[in-house]
Specification:
It contains 8 helices and 2 strands, in the order H-H-E-H-E-H-H-H-H-H. The protein is mainly α. It folds into 2 domains: about 90 residues, P-loop containing nucleotide triphosphate hydrolases (Rossmann fold, 3-Layer(aba) Sandwich); about 70 residues, Arc Repressor Mutant, subunit A (Orthogonal Bundle), CATH 1.10.10. Strands 1-2 form a two-stranded parallel ribbon. About 20% of the residues are buried.
Length: about 190
């Protein structure tokens, strides 16, 4: 195990331990501003310096800003020491998953529960897109956003989806007026997404 080197300069003992951790998965949990990005970038550089193929390393983060910063730091370290890191994957969780869906989503193995493959030109809705679709669905179902706020509708639809209920299954279970009304909106929302 390496206990010295440029990857370890200026790190705490716990950070050093994370950087030189054996080449197995590692989860780094710490608060904001504690040096997580520094530890992860140095760990990547250390792994590549130890012979790991850059294409075999996947670093995921939550924000585009953090992913960009991580890429810059890793490439700066590796260009100086190892002439770059071809194939290194540094991305946000969302971007990485979207890449997987675009690459493999139309294969039979990735088909929806009803056997329908993912359409090649699919799009991913952000919060604003979902809210706008909910507004259109509320209107299409004959309701008003004053009585059915889009945020509430999206929350209820999310709850149903977490229970693996599509609009038809939700409608079949809807007993009271409110649930039946939401079922109509849910159907219209699914139509908006199609």
């Amino acid at each position: 195990m390496v206990t010295a080197g440029p990857w370890l300069d200026g790190l705490t003992e716990a950070q050093r331990a994370a950087v030189v951790h054996p080449a197995t998965p590692l989860l780094v949990l710490a608060g904001p501003g504690s040096g997580k990005t520094r530890v992860i970038t140095r760990r990547i550089a250390h792994l590549v310096a130890q012979g790991a193929a850059p294409w075999s390393i996947l670093a995921l983060t939550f924000t585009n800003k953090a992913a960009g910063e991580m890429k810059e730091r890793v490439h700066a370290m590796l260009e100086a020491e190892l002439a770059g890191a071809r194939g290194l994957q540094v991305s946000t969780f969302h971007s990485f998953c979207a890449t997987l869906l675009r690459r493999y989503g139309s294969s039979p193995a990735a088909a929806a529960s009803d056997g329908t493959p993912l359409a090649p030109g699919f799009s991913i809705f952000d919060t604003d897109d979902a809210r706008d679709a909910a507004k259109r669905a509320i209107a299409a179902a004959g309701f008003d956003t004053k009585n059915w706020p889009p945020a509430l509708v999206l929350s209820r639809i999310s709850d149903a989806k977490n229970k693996l209920l599509d609009a038809a299954a939700y409608a079949a279970e809807a007993g009271d007026f409110t649930s039946r009304s939401l079922a109509k909106i849910y159907r219209a929302y699914e139509a908006e997404l199609a």
